[in-house]
Amino acid sequence: MGSLILGSAVYLFTPDFRKVLLLKRSAKKRFKPGAWGSVGGKMESGETPIQAAVRETWEEAGIRLKPTGLRLLGCTNLFRPGRHAVIFCFGGILKERKVKLNHEHTAYGWFDLNKLPTPATGEDFKAWRKKLRPLLKRIG
Question: Is-contact 24 36, C-beta < 8 A?
């Protein structure tokens, strides 16, 4: 069967839901080098999915998030030869701000959902936005 990897992804949208924060993956990354995608990564031993989401956002973008500000949008499965990854997808709202990248990424941007950069990791940002909106209205 291969290895099972657990991870978290974080989709940060502007308050008007028109833009999403994307990071450009380093050319040295094994999975989709140079592609634009969300914040995210593998869960560490003993971490919950939400803890991994908060940690990855801090490590990759220099943004401190409160777990209460994120909502679980769903899970997605990624299959590659010998690997199966289950990614817990979280969404949140954040005003546009500067991002402090780590070595895993070379650029970032707040992109209009109708003008996304390429190449992309293949994530469906519009679908996650549709799931996030009603969740925030319920708690707001």
Answer: yes
